[in-house]
TrEMBL record, chain A:
<dbReference type="GO" id="GO:0005524">
    <property type="term" value="F:ATP binding"/>
</dbReference>
<dbReference type="Pfam" id="PF00005">
    <property type="entry name" value="ABC_tran"/>
</dbReference>
<dbReference type="InterPro" id="IPR017871">
    <property type="entry name" value="ABC_transporter-like_CS"/>
</dbReference>
<dbReference type="InterPro" id="IPR003439">
    <property type="entry name" value="ABC_transporter-like_ATP-bd"/>
</dbReference>
<keyword id="KW-0592">Phosphate transport</keyword>
<dbReference type="InterPro" id="IPR005670">
    <property type="entry name" value="PstB-like"/>
</dbReference>
<feature type="domain" description="ABC transporter">
    <location>
        <begin position="4"/>
        <end position="245"/>
    </location>
</feature>
<keyword id="KW-0813">Transport</keyword>
<dbReference type="InterPro" id="IPR027417">
    <property type="entry name" value="P-loop_NTPase"/>
</dbReference>
TrEMBL record, chain B:
<feature type="transmembrane region" description="Helical">
    <location>
        <begin position="69"/>
        <end position="97"/>
    </location>
</feature>
<feature type="transmembrane region" description="Helical">
    <location>
        <begin position="192"/>
        <end position="210"/>
    </location>
</feature>
<keyword id="KW-1133">Transmembrane helix</keyword>
<feature type="transmembrane region" description="Helical">
    <location>
        <begin position="118"/>
        <end position="138"/>
    </location>
</feature>
<keyword id="KW-1003">Cell membrane</keyword>
<protein>
    <recommendedName>
        <fullName>Phosphate transport system permease protein PstA</fullName>
    </recommendedName>
</protein>
<comment type="similarity">
    <text>Belongs to the binding-protein-dependent transport system permease family. CysTW subfamily.</text>
</comment>
<feature type="transmembrane region" description="Helical">
    <location>
        <begin position="144"/>
        <end position="160"/>
    </location>
</feature>
<dbReference type="Pfam" id="PF00528">
    <property type="entry name" value="BPD_transp_1"/>
</dbReference>
Amino acid sequence: MIKIDAQNVDFYYGDFHALKNISMQIEANTSVAFIGPSGCGKSTFLRLFNRMNDLIPDTHLEGKIFIDGRDIYNKGEKVDTLRKNVGMVFQKPNPFPKTIFENVAYGLRVNGIKDNEYIEETVVKSLKQVVLWDEVKDKLKDSAFALSGGQQQRLCIARALAISPSILLMDEPTSALDPISTGKIEDLIHELKKEYTIVIVTHNMQQAARVSDKTGYFYLGELIEYGETRKIFTNPEKESTQNYITGRFG
Amino acid sequence: MAPVQKLGNIDLKKRTSQRFAFSFFTLLSYLVVAILFVILGFIIIKGGSVISWDFLTKAPEDGMTKGGIFPAIVGTFYLILGSSIISFPIGIMSGIYMNEYATNGKLVRFIRIMTNNLSGVPSVVFGLFGMSLFVNTLGWGDSIIAGSFTLALMSLPLIIRTTEEALKSIDDSFRHGSLALGATKLQTIRRVVLPMAFPNIITGLILSVGRVSGETAPILFTVAAYFLPQLPGSIFDQCMALPYHLYVISTSGTDIEASRGMAYGTALVLIVIVLVVNLLANLLRNYFAKKVKMN
């Protein structure tokens, strides 16, 4: 089943042509990695899926993006409804200055859920999903800032999962973390893709190879190659891809 | 051998000039504190003896050479309250608009320049403006409401500015995190941004209260009464106010020499009010800063 369907997407920051005629289909319950050198447009493309680029003034999109068959840039589409369905984890862990519990409950509360029992159940479930529960169960009322960077990032994933999205976007989620925390999050991605569609931007080639089913290689705003991760990393079709993954540039 | 020697000399020189510079800076900052203490000490010595229960709770008597300053204290509190009710919401909401909503950079810059200019307008001009608009054109007469509006106008630029700065210092990653969870912009501001910015916003509010409580010129033509033995009964009544009372008994009282002590007492009360307000602000600020972290 096709979850995300981008058709002939062009994107501009002012006059700068950041994405050039990109088409890509992402299947449900798979994980896809976007790789490519800095400034190649992979993060920009990712942020189109939950319309985070709307926040940047003077940008402009051409082409269409469908999620579950709905044109998400159609006039009638509500952006907050979209974002409920398409969760996002950022490069730097960004928990709110609230308690651990309230961080996870936040998404539920802003989406109008008042049933405290349900909120509590969901918070516990989400924290267990990201394997953080055992570490925080005795300090749910402590500030989220007291957690380590890796714990904070898992908290942010739990926060995103609590509102039961079907897609999880991850924008270099481990670039600010140590190797052990990174390993934990990669394990998590393996678990999560059973239930969610995961799109991850990464600068770490091994990470892309480890966590993704498919990989897209971006260069200068173009999608150079997109296919099975195994094939991209062992036998890419394009020379540019070959050069990048072998570290000859980037 | 020689170059090392030379280097050593430069080192010594560098350190000496650094030591000299920092001693100078330290001295200057101590001087500022010292001046503050001298002023405070002076007022306390001159005015302390006047302070009594009667002074704080009675109206002036005998051509303001005796009695107390109760109506002026109450009047000042009314004006603080009145102007705050007007200026806090308008100022905070304008600040929120400018930092969170306005997308038109030129418009925001224009508003910012205008508010900056407004904060540079001498307070006596605000007084004149308030008199012409609120007292005469709107026909409110010399009244608490006219004075409150005038003071509110005067303190708006400061409140807008500090609110804007407080919001600006909140990293966008918090906003994005909230928006990415399907929160609306308003929810994001109310639940994430404002609580974080609140401690700094409070500072701005309190600074404005300090300014409002001490200003004489804006209330001169809009509300302040020369002498009023009874308390105001409604917002359309005139009232006495500490700074104006101080001005009156030091310059145009019935017997300036005789009311000298009263003047220092009034000054002391005014300063204590401002200090207490500032102290309160700090406590509130710390309280909210802690709450934001833990909650």
